[in-house]
Design brief:
767 residues, 3-stranded parallel β-sheet, flat, 16 helices, alpha+beta, Rossmann fold, 6 domains
Length: 767
């Protein structure tokens, strides 16, 4: 039965008792699943409920299907679906249809407020509170809506906004009609002046074309005059240049021989420059060769010196290795001596502590005397007292002698460690001296390698210089002739520059002759073009100033029209503004009329909600008034029947506390024994279950009662079973769980549960 409850509601504390891990079978593997499949029927529909905890982590899983179709999936969703289907949560389930062992009084032990709330929820009465709350919420919403509508429909002075809007619309319509008439009059005036402007614009366009043509011809005439003037000036300049150039031809003939002599000297100077470069190259090679030989001699001398130093430092490395080896040996010996001294010191301290304890023990035994007890066996010392004192004195003396021996050994090792330290200092000093010599030897070796490289480089440079001198060969350079040629070139330079200048200038004579002929032809073409332009101006017949006069008249007409357009724009703007305002006010009027209809509708709905609210509150009050009497009546009949009318019945007060009638007087439940108390709680449970079962559409159609007979005698057991026969008309299934053998004979169907040796259970259906 608890498996059924777990399948319905999952891992609630009331179901799993301790923790969800307790649901798992003790013999199950760590990764095995725990699962329940529950199949039940409600109103002809078959429901299959599956709930499981998977694997080592006990991850929850659940599903609910109806007639093969999935209704809910997941732990929370399935639990919510079950609560909605059965109309109760797990608390109500264990208060009403499932009475577990020792929990018949689960309802009566609650405080009055929780007990009342739970009973009303189980019976579905609390849903009336939700309905009443929803109705009142809608009622307040309608009130708020109506108040808002009324605020919008009336002015602060209480006048109707719709009537005010109608008055404003009439005033605006009259103003709009007046504006439309004024616009029509102005449009007629605009049409007339537009026709005048069109005629003037056409006349202006014709004059504009002629004015442009006249301007173009005037421009062409001015341009032709300017071009003729420019050509005449150019011809004059060309004639002047030709005359000037022809006067310079005799000077060019005189300078021509000097120019030829200058070219000859240039060639001779270039040949002498080549010889000069070869002479300078030879001189440079000789200087480099001499310097390399001197530096080679110096490096060879330095190599001799460095080799001598290297031989002197060569033995330092071997000595350094021997010194370092000796130092390591001395360090090890010194550390060994220090450790031996430390060990001796620790042993001295230990022996001192033991000697102190032994002396204290000896003094204690001497003080207590021969009648004292042995600290080991707790016997009286008697004759052993003197022997024990001597033994302790000898042990103390032996420890003192051992401590003295260890002290001398410690001092000896300390002295040895000190001497080894001094020796180590001497070796360290020697090591530094040898290290310095080794460093010097390394530097000398490095210098020798560097000098060898430099020597090889210098030798290569000498060989390269000698080879270059051989390749250069004999150099024959006449320095005196070289200076003489440069002087003569300097003297001829001015004459040669003048010769080149005249030759360049006279080369332009043919070009200037050709240019003069072209200029004369161009002047003739310009004069012919000027004659044609004058002829076209006369043929055009345009009077200057006529375009300006026409444009002035057009401007005056346009200014007048612009003024009318401004006025027209203003009138149209006012007309559009009036139209827009009129449209807005008409829309506002429509909104107000709609709001008036909405207000009428809201008033009607308010009256309906008020009537509905009063009706539901009266209905809830009536239901609340019938709950306690109904439960009292049903439970009283059961209680009287099960007690064979020993008690006249039982009743519930407004807090659902139980009272029993005994000999015509009402008494609280606490007055009676455990049997009567259990029986009264059972009757209340059965009454609640019967009322739940009688509810229309209720899904709960079973009872589960665990160990309810323990406090009842045989007669009452039979009476309870007879009562269950009557209850079977409301409940299809009633499950009774008991260990009492004689109850089994009173049941129509019995299932025996036995535990197997492996801890599992088996169920046996008995006839």
């Amino acid at each position: 039965m608890e498996a059924v409850a777990w399948a319905l509601y999952g891992n609630e504390k009331m179901i799993v008792r301790t923790s969800k891990e307790s649901i798992r079978n003790a013999s199950a593997g760590p990764n095995e699943d725990t699962a329940v499949n529950l199949v039940f029927e409600i109103a002809g529909d078959e429901y299959k409920l599956y709930r499981a905890m998977r694997g080592k982590s006990n991850a929850s899983d659940a599903s609910l299907t109806v007639n093969g179709q999935l209704k809910a999936s997941g732990e929370k969703a399935v639990t919510q679906a079950v609560e909605k289907l059965l109309g109760m949560d797990y608390k109500a389930f264990f208060i009403s249809v499932f009475a577990r062992q020792k929990e018949l009084n689960a309802l009566s032990v609650l405080n009055p407020a929780d007990r009342k709330k739970l009973v009303l929820r189980m019976l579905g009465v609390d849903r009336l509170d939700e309905v009443v709350g929803a109705i009142d919420h809608d009622l307040n919403a309608v009130k708020t809506e109506l108040e808002a509508l009324q605020r919008d429909l009336l002015t602060p002075e209480g006048k109707s906004r719709s009537e005010l809007e109608k008055q404003s619309i009439r005033v605006i319509e009259e103003a709009e009609l007046s504006l439309r008439r004024e616009v029509e009059t102005l449009q007629t005036q605009l049409d007339g002046i537009s026709a005048q402007i069109g005629h003037a614009r056409s006349e202006r366009d014709g004059l504009t074309k002629k004015d442009g043509q006249h301007r173009d011809l005037q421009t062409q005439a001015v341009r032709s005059d300017a071009e003729a003037k420019a050509v005449n000036e150019a011809i004059g300049r060309i004639d002047g240049s030709l005359s000037s150039l022809r006067s310079r031809e005799p000077e060019l003939a005189i300078l021509s021989p000097e120019a030829g002599k200058y070219e000859t000297l240039i060639k001779e100077r270039d040949a002498l420059d080549k010889e000069l470069k070869r002479a300078e190259q030879r001189k440079s090679l000789l200087g480099v060769l001499e310097a390399s030989k001197k530096k080679t001699a110096m490096i060879e001398q330095e190599l001799v010196t460095k080799n001598q130093v290297a031989k002197e430092c060569g033995g330092a490395r071997g000595s350094l290795e021997r010194v370092e080896s000796n130092m390591e040996q001395v360090r090890l010996e010194r550390e060994e001596k220090r450790q031996m001294a430390k060990s001796a010191e620790l042993e001295i301290e230990r022996l001192g502590e033991e000697q102190t304890k032994a002396e204290e023990k000896r003094q204690e035994i001497a003080r207590l005397g021969p009648q004292s007890k042995c600290p080991t066996c707790e016997r009286e010392l008697c004759d052993q007292h003197g022997f024990l004192l001597k033994k302790l004195e000898k042990e103390s003396s032996d420890r003192s002698a051992e401590r003295e021996r260890l002290r001398q050994e410690k001092e000896k090792n300390a002295d040895s460690a000190k001497q080894l330290g001094e020796r180590l200092d001497v070796l360290e000093k020697r090591k530094k001296e040898l290290s310095k010599k080794c460093d010097e030897a390394a530097k000398v070796e490095e210098a020798l390698e560097r000098l060898q490289r430099q020597l090889a480089t210098l030798q290569g440079e000498c060989e390269n210089s000698e080879a270059s001198l051989v390749a250069l060969g004999t150099v024959d350079f006449d320095e005196q002739r070289y200076e003489s040629v440069k002087a003569m070139l300097l003297q001829l330079r001015t004459k040669v520059d003048r010769f080149n200048e005249l030759r360049t200038q006279l080369a332009r004579l043919p070009e200037l002759d050709e240019e003069r002929g072209l200029a004369i032809l161009q002047r003739e073409e310009i004069e012919a073009k000027r004659v044609r332009v004058d002829q076209l101006i006369r043929e055009l017949g345009y009077e200057q100033g006529s375009l300006q006069r026409t444009q002035q008249r057009l401007d005056e007409l346009s200014t007048s029209k612009d003024g009318m357009m401004v006025k027209s724009t203003r009138l149209h703007g006012e007309l559009a503004s009036r139209s827009s305002e009129l449209k807005g006010r008409r829309e506002r009027l429509e909104d107000l009329e709609r709001q008036e209809k909405n207000a009428e509708e809201a008033m009607r709905r308010l009256e309906e909600q008020q009537v509905l609210s009063l009706a539901m509150k009266d209905f809830r009050k009536n239901v609340m008034a019938r709950v306690v009497p109904t439960l009292s009546e049903v439970s009283a009949l059961l209680f009287a029947e099960l007690t064979d009318n020993k008690y006249q019945g039982m009743m519930l007060d407004d807090n659902y506390d139980i009272f029993i009638y005994d000999k015509g007087e009402k008494h609280a439940l606490s007055r009676f024994s455990g049997g009567e108390t259990d029986l009264a709680n059972l009757c209340l449970r059965l009454a609640i279950s019967r009322v739940i079962a009688d509810q229309a559409g209720s899904a709960v159609n079973f009872l589960i009662l665990d160990e309810i007979f323990g406090s009842q005698d045989q007669v009452r057991k039979r009476g309870i079973m007879n009562a269950f026969e009557q209850l079977s008309k409301q409940f299809k299934q009633i499950f009774l769980i008991t260990h009492i053998e004689d109850v089994k004979d009173l049941m129509s169907n019995a299932i025996t549960v036995r535990e197997r040796e492996d801890g599992s259970s088996e169920l046996i259906l008995q006839a």
